[in-house]
# Entry
Amino acid sequence: MRKKMTISKKNLYKWIYALIFLPLAVRFFTDNFGMPYTIMPMFDILALVILFLSYYLTRKISKKAHILEFWLFIFIGASVISIIANSGTTLENLFYSGRPYFRVIFAMLATAIVFNLKDVERLYYYIEKLMYLNAIVMTYQFVFQGLRQDIIGGTFGNNQGVNSIQNILCIFLFAVTVEFYLKKIISKRKLLINSIIVLYIAILAEINLVFFEVAIVGGILFLLNLKITKKISVRMIFLISIGIIGMLGGVYLFMKLNPERVFLLSIKNISEYLGFNSGNTGVYRISRVKVFSQLGNSFFNNDMKRWIFGYGLGNCSIHSEFYNLYQNLQYTNFSSANVFLETGLFGVFANLGIIVIGMVLSLKGRRFVTDNKDKAWLDIAFTINVIMVLMFFYNSTLKDTYTAFFAGVVLAIPYIVLRNKSAN
# Structure
């Protein structure tokens, strides 16, 4: 008898994996074999389908309201009010701005409903194997194709912009590896291999941000685990020792391979690079640090309505008149700038609020979660959320098709852990 295909909660998690990995595959084939980019909007449709099915197949049983639904309402409210306050936008502009605006929250909500911790752990092992393969392909690109710096994308292509993909995957891999080691879930050997892979990718692809993030991740996880144990364990001593040696060696090799980045060894130069200093916007025309004051004073002046609601979702899209006039600002390279210009401080509140709430839930959850692996995932969630705040200002990770869905999945981890705790 022919089997009838059914869609159930049991296989919905596979759709979320597809949402993460298929865009990466498309980028690889686009850069290497000329596959057209026109397929990319299909992934936003897929995200909506997954979200709908997650409610249809799962949430119709559960009557419990989810905090993420409230934040989805905030996202929708910020976008709609920004459009109304600016007398509308075009459907074309809304198409190009609305999709990236909702990617993270859609992925978060669907993942929080569908995923369990086994699915998250499985994702970690998939990313681990993918980054091993990526390191091999990058080596081939470096040695035989002569590619250098931020166009060495390994399995993710060979064009500029690929570093945002490698960055978020590297940091996720590193954070989970370190926390699992501290919680005695994995061995020293696995810690060393994964840490070397992360630093190797950062060195070859010239991802200087990774070194800063690795220090943040290591420091946060060390403090979180120190608070639990009340003492420094042998594993922590080993981690600190390897961390110092690895960072020094990694920075040395990074500078040898990328001598033009030696200037980043100076605190003053780093400040200028990020746009900290007065009158300096860093390497881009927009300061990563003073983005709101810079753009607000340049475009909004004393118009409080603009400060709060921006120009309206869609009115600064890549097909808008605003973009034609000011594309030289490169504001589309940063989630913070794009969100602020289109939806003002209200939109910024929605985007950062969803991350901060995840941090709060992770810290609160640690107080009553007893399972070792549950605690590990909450520590990881808190740490990654901190990095996500950084990425909101540093690049377009939280909006880009290749990274935003993965970011949403990772940001949903505390909700998955706490839902699992409630079920037990």
